[in-house]
Specification:
mainly alpha, TAAR, Rhopdopsin 7-helix transmembrane proteins, two-stranded antiparallel sheet
Length: about 325
Amino acid sequence: MNYTEVNQTDYCLQFACPERSVSAVYVLLYVSAAAVVLLTVFGNLLIIISVCHFKQLHTPTNMLILSLAVSDFLVGALVIPISLIWTIETCWIFSREFCIYLILTSYFLTSTSIYNVALIAVDRYFALSNPFLYTNKASVNKICFVVVCDWCVLFFYNLGVHYFNRNFKSLVMCPGDCFLVLDEIWSLVDLLFIFVFPCSVIIILYGLVFVLVRKHATAIRDLNVHTKTQTSKNATESMKSERKAAKSLGIVVCGFLACLFPYFIYSLLGKAIAVEVESFQKVLILVYLNSTINPVIYALFYPWFRKCVKLVLTFQIFKRNSALIKVV
């Protein structure tokens, strides 16, 4: 993800972190931060356990949801705690090495999340546009291979960006700050590869998905009017299931884009406007909070997830043959 180009001179005006007195508001901020971290970590952990444990959930689409949950879990465990401390303290209180760690980790995990959502959009489009071909060609093993390739490509891409960007020589590490300023060429490359391309895929394919959903709704009505055979009933149920899955995942995608767009607006306008540190931090935190929102969306719109959570929290997954329990 492209860290917006900021005014380094303005940053260096902050020569030291301001002293913070312990107050009720200060404590409340840390309690709220802990709650966000716990919700992100345990919410995504429940998704990971559910998809991995229950055999009925071992589907190609759920492998992509699993990949997204893993990246969100790592964001919650490795990135959000540090970022929230930075925001609450209003300055960077850790070392330069820890700053580099945060940049590398957040950069890689957020870009992985973006491409996971893009893969989900591709998966839903092909499942709805050609369900018979999708059923025959898509498999759990093939999707897992695609996911592994996706993680590897993004890992080496992120290493390349930081290596060719002068090995962190452009790291802004004034007292109290931790930002990476990419040069103009890498800023453009990063913007196109990490944001423009995947988000274009997401928006275009989900636009086509909702067109297909409307066509399927018309087809379901026609089937119900003209025939009452068992075959038509099965086709109707299958189309309804695909439509419901597309709508639910569409909500995930909309939430994702809503969290992502403010950051990249700041990135695009960074050279034209004076970006305040605190404002930039809040926009960056919004990107990370998408990892917190996703499990909440699953809990609200996925009955299988609610059932799995109940089975996990009541320790029924430790019973013999619990993996075979029907959750869908």
